[in-house]
Amino acid sequence: MSVRYVDIGYWDDGYSEENPEWPTGLVPVEMELGIKFNSQVSVADLSGHVQTVDLPGARWSMSIVMPPLERSGEASALEAFIATLRGQAVRAVMPVFTRSSPLGAWAGSPKVNNETSSPTLSQTGTTLQCRDFTPFTTVKAGDYFNLGLNGQLLMVTEDGMADSNGLLQLSVQPAIRVAPEHLTELYFTDPVVPMMILTDPHPRWRIKPADVNEYALDFIEVFE
Prior knowledge:
mainly beta; Phosphorylase Kinase, domain 1; 6-stranded antiparallel β-sheet; 1 helix; 16 strands
């Protein structure tokens, strides 16, 4: 009896140093960015009463449309990037296009502050205690940041101002999934999010006359 071995490769459950980054200089002409909340809704047949359950597991989604690209230039780089993802086996490090810098000042070196009480905080949910802002620095609703280097992507949902000691409570979405360590840094410029490409049935692009290609790609956030 013969035995057949099949190389099934690997499954990447989140961000690592080997995850390919989006090619530098490529900017979509259209983008849809949203949060896919994990909520369940049930409607009673007789009364019409609606019950909603908010479950953990909200994740970012992204759809992008690229301008026509020539094969001799940026098209080749994009096609190579798509190929390295191996369908949904490898995660892409996607930038938050057009949101590379915040509207708020974000002055200082903001970090997670778990020492506002005794015992120390274990912060999850939709608020985050922070420290080391420059006093009276402002943040704005709609600002994006990473919780740690290449960590969870969060969006500020309310304007805020640090106090005279540089302390600030941020309101964020989606909910913080894993409690960060004390003094975890907040990265508010060039935020990124690890994502896998959605395949239906597989990533492909349209090749037009004069070897000009068109691309429309969909991604969904991946986390452990």
